[in-house]
Each structure stands twice: as structure tokens, then as C-alpha cells.
Design brief:
The chain is built from 16 helices and 21 strands. The chain has 561 residues and is α/β, with parallel strands linked by helices.
Length: 561
């Protein structure tokens, strides 16, 4: 057996299992239909029982909620709908008492247009806060096109009459981009990070961070670049001064506290990603790349296992010796994991959800597990645009309609890929509104809540929930699943994803079936005698040198020497 030694340094943040909570949808404590901090506090023991070691919560700052909290109007205030600063202090203390780290979602590519900075900036071209944002005087003509993800026209420049100028917004028109070239703005951000770190925050998830640096001459980009998300990242991301800013951020904040920072997005190349997070760079600590969840871009072009394996394997190879990756299959910007990568039919939802959780918790890198995926929650599949709450869906619909797109096809894709699929309320029990709220929920509850919920799954040792707990325990107790080398087996197998994790003289085999039929996998000679460390079925059939896998079966095996 070939030995594998740890070639990269051990860090506490590499060893975390991070549980992401969308606070608006977790638990409503006061009956207004909106999840809140007291709701999270009420469920601290449940979160601890999952075996996760850190929690990332989407933005809870003061916000007018144009983009559900990603438009911040006060970086040091708590949104009234979520509670108070006292509630925040109680919550983070509760996490720490239970040995759970806390990760803050920090949105510093843009603010809300209702932030006092922007209110001042749009008053006059000579205002002290003018250079906190990007402006283009109208007398120079319209600036070169920049793409906006959420704009009805896809145009990131919005004319603002009070000062006869355009301002830049890569996202909603109510989310003007901050100007990181202004040193005073950067100090405001560093002061904000120190404020939260002093309150005990253990890490920062930096939203849209690859976009913070812009060439302020705003040169022309190739026509049509906005039609491909890869090109948008290439031309919008990793601007000329990005690394100057991240090194300064490290010196000013990250090096002063025992915290880590993860960048949402990693540029368009491995070199970009390494330049952000390699340890000797003294910048950020962890990459959160999107290539794995961008496989398949519509109903007519769904994901396939070959691409899934190839993407995860190439990123692992690129980061085998330096840098550190995150591993995730879902978040607030993606559809539900089991609907996209598994099989959310009544017959196979539970077992395929267990299989996908097995994948997340046996891969190298820090796993990010999205709330509700420990139950196998699935897409809600809205039928009509009136049901949607997400600005990306609503403005995307308006844009497609104005451009004469095939609206039937648009709605089919929206139904499956919409961000609202992952934002439906947590399903606690079979009472009204799934136990989420005594009021009217801000977004509809999935109709399957009467049998897909925490209360039901707590009672079954075979549930998705209890399988998730078994997998977090296995990962927490075994460094091989954190630092062990990853090697892909049978890359061309269209039904099975198999790989080994190897550390020192220890080697484990992970075999995952991605099909709804029985399938076979031949074991290496060294694994003719094995111990089953994890299995999402009650048994594993073994015929000579071959194991027979049931639909979506997932097993972790260790050789018995």
C-alpha cells in the first residue's frame, strides 16, 4: 500500500463542517412569517446534534431587502425583522458554548442604495462620500457596457438625475458597487470586520469578492461577453488591484484575529484561485468556486456524472499541494441538492440524498452543508411567476419577456433552477406551515412537509437526518477524510463515482451509485476483506471480487489487513 503523508499544514478551519442557514427561512419565533435570530437560538441544540462544527448565516444586517439582505444599509446594525444586536450576542454565545464556530456573511462588493454613504454620494459630485462608489458623468456619453446579474435590461450602469451621472451596479440597481480604490472606503470595511471579529465572529464569507476591483477607465469588453457566465467572471472578476486590497485586508484584519476568510468565486483559472488563497500569499484562506454547481445550464442540458467527477477531480488535483477548497452542492443561490444531483422522486429522494451527503462529507476540502439538506428537502417547483420572491427570477422574467424569449422554456428552466427552490422554510414537523411559523410564511412551504420533516426523521434510524449525523461523526473522528489524498477510480464509469482517501498507511474507498438501478463495482485485491464504515442501506451485497450496489447506494469501506 502506497503511503500518503500530509503535505499541507493543518488548520482548524480546514477541519470544519460548515452548516449554512438562510435565516429568513429557518424558524420564525414571533409569528410574522419571517425566520429570525431567536428562532436560531431556539434550535441551537438541534444544530449541535447534527455534528456540524461551524455555522454560516446569510446576511442579517440592516437592509431594505431588495435582495434578501445582500443589499446592506447599515453594516453594524441587525435587520429589525431578524431581531436585535442583543439577540445576535446571545446567538453567537450559544454557538460558542456548544463548540460551534460562527461565520459572518460580509457583502462588500456593493451596498444598498439606502445606505447613508450612497444617499450622501448621490447628492453632489463634490460630496465626501462620492468616491465610495463608481460614477460616470453623463456629459462624457454613456459608459462602455457592463453586465448586471439582476437588472431587467442586464445593464450595470444606471442614470441618476440629481448629479447627471451613471452609477455602477453589477447586481440590482439598488445595489451600487463600492469603490475599493478609495482608501477611506477600505478602512470603513476593515473597521466593520474588526467590529464583528471583536464580537467573536470566527470567519467571513466574502460575497462576490472577486469583483471588488475595477479598471476605473472602464474599457470596452468584447461584444456579447455577457452571454456566457465564464466570460462574465473573466471580464468582471480579478481586477487589477484585487491582490493589493486582499493583502491589505489580511494585514489590517485577518492577521490580527484567529479567523479565516473564504472568497465567493475564484476567478476564471486555477492560477486566479491559488493567487487568492495560497498560504504564502498572505491574502485569503479558502476558495469557494462555482464550477461544480454550474454543470448543466438548463433543462435541455442537465448535469452528467462524467462532468461532475471531472470537475471535482481537477480542482482537487490543482489544490493537492497548496491552497484549500470548499466542497458544496447547494446554497441559497442554487436549487436543492437532491433535485439537481440526485433523484427527488418519492421512491429515491431519501436514499439519493444520503448518497449526496456521503459525497460531501468524504471529499477533501471543507464541506458546506445547506440547511434542510440533512433532511433531503427538495425543490418546490413553482408554476407561476407570481409565486416567486427572488429578484433574480422576477427581473429575469421581465428581461426575457421584453426580449421576446420563449417564455415556456424560460419558465421550465426557472422552475428547476430558481434560487427560491432553496429558500423555502425549514420543515420541522407536520403541523401547519411545517412548524416554521404560526403566521403566514414569507414564501410558500413545500407541500411534502408532512412526511419530510425533522420530527419524523428523528424517530427513524434509517432517515436522511440520522445518516447525516453518522457521516459528520465519521468525518470529525477521522483525519483521513480531511487531509487524506483523494484519487479518482474508474473515471469513465457512467454509473458510479468511486475514489480513495489515503493518509499515511490508511486507505478508505468511497463508492457512490448515481443511478436508479442495481449496478456492480469490482474491488481491488487489497479490499477483498473490508470493514463497512458507512452505508446508506442496511446491507451490502458482495459477490466474489465485486460489490453489488442498489440504486443510489453509497458505501465507505476500509481494508482489513
Amino acid at each position: 500500500m502506497v503511503k500518503s503523508t500530509v503535505s499541507i499544514s493543518k488548520k482548524w478551519w480546514k477541519e470544519q463542517i460548515i452548516y449554512q442557514i438562510y435565516p429568513r427561512s429557518f424558524l420564525d419565533s414571533d409569528g410574522d412569517g419571517i425566520g429570525d435570530l431567536k428562532g436560531i437560538i431556539e434550535k441551537l441544540d438541534y444544530i449541535k446534534s447534527l455534528g456540524v462544527t461551524a455555522v454560516w448565516i446569510n446576511p442579517i444586517y440592516s437592509s431594505p431587502n431588495d435582495d434578501n439582505g445582500y443589499d446592506i444599509s447599515n453594516y453594524r446594525g441587525i435587520m429589525e425583522e431578524f431581531g436585535s444586536m442583543e439577540d445576535f450576542d446571545t446567538m453567537i454565545e450559544g454557538f460558542h458554548q456548544r463548540g460551534i464556530k460562527f461565520v459572518m456573511d460580509l457583502v462588500v462588493n456593493h451596498s444598498s442604495d439606502e445606505h447613508e454613504w450612497f444617499k450622501q454620494a448621490r447628492c453632489s459630485r463634490h460630496n465626501l462620500y462620492r468616491d465610495y462608489y463608481h460614477w460616470w458623468p453623463a456629459e462624457k456619453g454613456k459608459p462602455n457596457f457592463r453586465f448586471s446579474f439582476f437588472d431587467e435590461r442586464g445593464d450595470a450602469w444606471k442614470y441618476d438625475a440629481p448629479t447627471d451621472a451613471y452609477y455602477l451596479h453589477y447586481f440590482s440597481a439598488k445595489q451600487p458597487d463600492l469603490n475599493w480604490e478609495n482608501p477611506e472606503l477600505r478602512q470603513e470595511i476593515y473597521d466593520t470586520m474588526r467590529f464583528w471579529a471583536d464580537k467573536g465572529v470566527d470567519g467571513f464569507r466574502l460575497d462576490a469578492f472577486q469583483y471588488i476591483s475595477k479598471d476605473q477607465s472602464f474599457p470596452c469588453f468584447p461584444e456579447g461577453y455577457q452571454n456566457n457566465v465564464v466570460d462574465v467572471i473573466k471580464y468582471h472578476g480579478m481586477g487589477p488591484t484585487l491582490h493589493d486590497h486582499t493583502r491589505e485586508l489580511y494585514e489590517e484584519v485577518l492577521s490580527k484575529y484567529d479567523v479565516f476568510a473564504v472568497s465567493e468565486g475564484a476567478g476564471s483559472t486555477f492560477e486566479d484561485a491559488h493567487s487568492l488563497v495560497d498560504e504564502d500569499r498572505n491574502e485569503l484562506q479558502m476558495v469557494y468556486h462555482f464550477e461544480a454547481v454550474q454543470i448543466g445550464d438548463g433543462i435541455e442540458n442537465p448535469h452528467n456524472l462524467a462532468d461532475f467527477k471531472q470537475v471535482h477531480s481537477k480542482w482537487d488535483k490543482a489544490f493537492r499541494e497548496k491552497g484549500w477548497l470548499s466542497i458544496f452542492l447547494a446554497n441559497h443561490d442554487e436549487p436543492r441538492m437532491v433535485s439537481r444531483f440526485g433523484n427527488d422522486s418519492d421512491e429515491f429522494r431519501a436514499v439519493s440524498a444520503k448518497m449526496l451527503n456521503t459525497f460531501l462529507l468524504t471529499m477533501r476540502g471543507t464541506p458546506y452543508c445547506y440547511f434542510g439538506d440533512e433532511l433531503g428537502m427538495k425543490n418546490i417547483y413553482f408554476e407561476d411567476i407570481s409565486e416567486y420572491k427572488d429578484i433574480a427570477a422576477i427581473n429575469g422574467y421581465k428581461k426575457a419577456l421584453s426580449e421576446g424569449k420563449d417564455m415556456q422554456k424560460f419558465m421550465q428552466n426557472l422552475k428547476f433552477y430558481s434560487r427560491d427552490n432553496s429558500r423555502t422554510p425549514m420543515q420541522w414537523n407536520d403541523s401547519e406551515n411545517a412548524g416554521f411559523s404560526t403566521g403566514s410564511p414569507w414564501i410558500s412551504v413545500n407541500k411534502d412537509y408532512s412526511w419530510v420533516n425533522v420530527e419524523v426523521q428523528e424517530k427513524s434510524s434509517e432517515s436522511v437526518l440520522n445518516h447525516f449525523r453518522a457521516m459528520t461523526k465519521l468525518r470529525t473522528e477521522n483525519d483521513i477524510l480531511v487531509y487524506g489524498k483523494y484519487d479518482l477510480l474508474e473515471a469513465d464509469n457512467s454509473e458510479i463515482y468511486a475514489y480513495t482517501r489515503t493518509l499515511d498507511d490508511q486507505s478508505w474507498l468511497v463508492v457512490l451509485s448515481f443511478v436508479d438501478t442495481d449496478t456492480m463495482f469490482k474491488l481491488a485485491n487489497s479490499l477483498q476483506h473490508y470493514e463497512v464504515l458507512a452505508n446508506n442501506y442496511s446491507e451490502l451485497s458482495h459477490e466474489g471480487e465485486t460489490i453489488k450496489l442498489k440504486p443510489y447506494q453509497a458505501v465507505v469501506l476500509s481494508a482489513i489487513v
